[in-house]
């Protein structure tokens, strides 16, 4: 039995929700290991949509679900999300949801600082943040001044921690000409939510280690995509955490030997939201076609996604940086009806051909995609559940993607419905 990590192999929004729901039904424990409530999954079960931001996908299936230490948690957003799902009939209790005691909390001051800095950034330097406080919360975490979940259990120690936090944040506010924040305001903010969070608090690493040793199947799910990784993505137009598969170990408190299979969720074309380089972006009728047919809007932000051709260079790079064993190729049906389909197979940078995305911001902005053109198909792939149901040109497209990225297709998704999937290899039975 394998423990599986699910990562997005592009810039996120690859359709992870359907796949993690399918996998969570087979898992015993589902672990969210990074990010905040700026990204999440949409699950469609029996015609009902569940939009998740912080909660692991397992909660909808009644599976033990863990928010790991690598996640930054807005406690009020978490309480609101629990209430929202319970209104949809999903029962969430401490028996199925546990929150790492050493996870960092997002506070109102983080949201305010996030918005202030983004709004003050000159044109061309904006990151495209969702202004939900994720970045500033991670900054406080590595700056060793964060308030963590466990601190809610001992309110008497909070004043000193808040003073340390505000020494930093009020200096920034003074520099921006803004009103300073009082310690009482932060204390009251935390006190108002502590009793609602503490029942879920857990030594997550300890509990997960016991589950692993007992032979339980663990599913690690991340948010966003590998190209938004703080180290390996299109820096600085990235998120504030590591999104590659290796973070599953650090963000849950388990060692890397706990990971047996890495599944990279990969869209049959490419999208991204926010600012930053996007070599294969199509700001034309092709981009409009993909965005409209693919319903490309953010799950939790509603932002329209930028769309372009499949970029084999970045996915091949993610196969390396995340150690991907196999991919789940999604949204193949969106390509139905195109006369021809292009795939980026390399870049030209300053007159030289390269087969990787450079780390330099300037170089990323200068790369020019090199395309191969494949014939499209007019028949529908939507709802196909066997290879035999796919048009010949669609099969050729999928096989060529496998060759270019150096990883096999383990699953092929042909619609948002969970049963419309061609299973080649079950990651849990690696």
Automatic annotation (TrEMBL):
Q: Where is the active site?
A: 13, 41, 141
**Catalytic function, reaction form:** IMP + L-aspartate + GTP = N(6)-(1,2-dicarboxyethyl)-AMP + GDP + phosphate + 2 H(+)
Sorted alphabetically, which keywords does the UniProt record give? Cytoplasm, GTP-binding, Ligase, Magnesium, Metal-binding, Nucleotide-binding, Purine biosynthesis
Q: Where does Mg(2+) bind?
A: 13, 40
Q: How does it assemble?
A: Homodimer.
The entry marks the following residues as binding IMP, namely: 13-16, 38-41, 130, 144, 224, 239, 303
Q: What is the lineage of its organism?
A: Bacteria, Pseudomonadati, Pseudomonadota, Alphaproteobacteria, Hyphomicrobiales
> According to its UniProt record, which cofactors does this protein need?
Mg(2+)
Pathway noted in the entry: Purine metabolism; AMP biosynthesis via de novo pathway; AMP from IMP: step 1/2
Name of the protein this chain belongs to? Adenylosuccinate synthetase
């Amino acid at each position: 039995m394998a423990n599986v990590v699910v990562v997005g192999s592009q810039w996120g929004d690859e359709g992870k929700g359907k796949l993690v729901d399918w996998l969570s039904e087979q898992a015993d424990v589902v672990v969210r290991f990074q990010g905040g409530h700026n990204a999440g999954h949409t699950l469609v079960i029996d015609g009902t949509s569940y939009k998740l931001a912080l909660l692991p996908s397992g909660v909808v299936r009644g599976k033990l679900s863990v928010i790991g230490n690598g996640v930054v948690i807005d406690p009020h957003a978490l309480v609101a999300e629990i209430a929202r799902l319970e209104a949809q009939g999903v029962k969430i209790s401490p028996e199925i949801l546990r929150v790492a005691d050493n996870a960092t909390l997002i506070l109102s001051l983080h949201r305010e600082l996030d918005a202030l800095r983004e709004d003050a950034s000159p044109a061309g330097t904006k990151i495209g943040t969702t202004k939900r406080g994720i970045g500033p919360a991670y900054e406080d975490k590595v700056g060793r001044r964060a308030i963590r979940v466990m601190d809610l259990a001992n309110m008497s120690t909070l004043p000193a921690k808040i003073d340390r936090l505000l020494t930093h944040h009020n200096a920034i506010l003074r520099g921006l000409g803004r009103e300073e924040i009082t310690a009482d305001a932060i204390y009251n903010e935390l006190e108002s939510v502590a009793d609602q969070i503490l029942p879920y608090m857990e030594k997550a690493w300890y509990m997960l280690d016991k589950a692993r040793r007992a032979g339980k199947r663990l599913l690690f799910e991340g948010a966003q995509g590998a190209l938004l990784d703080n180290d390996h993505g299109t820096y600085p137009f990235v998120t504030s955490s590591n999104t590659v598969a290796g973070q599953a170990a650090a963000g849950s408190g388990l060692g890397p030997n706990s990971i047996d299979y890495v599944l990279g969720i990969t869209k049959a074309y490419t999208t991204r939201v926010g600012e930053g380089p996007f070599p294969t972006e199509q700001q034309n009728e092709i981009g409009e076609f993909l965005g409209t047919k693919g319903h490309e809007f953010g799950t939790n932000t509603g932002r329209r996604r930028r769309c372009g051709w499949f970029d084999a260079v970045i996915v091949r790079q993610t196969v390396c940086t995340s150690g991907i064993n196999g991919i789940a190729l999604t949204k193949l049906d969106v390509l139905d009806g195109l006369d021809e389909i292009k795939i980026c197979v390399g870049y030209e940078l300053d007159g030289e051909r390269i087969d990787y995305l450079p780390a330099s911001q300037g170089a990323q902005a200068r790369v020019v995609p090199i395309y191969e053109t494949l014939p499209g198909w007019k028949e529908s792939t939507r709802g196909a559940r066997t290879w035999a149901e796919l048009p010949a040109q669609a099969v050729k497209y999928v096989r060529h993607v496998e060759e270019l990225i150096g990883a096999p297709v383990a699953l092929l998704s042909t619609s948002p419905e969970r049963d419309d999937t061609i299973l080649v290899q079950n990651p849990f039975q690696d």
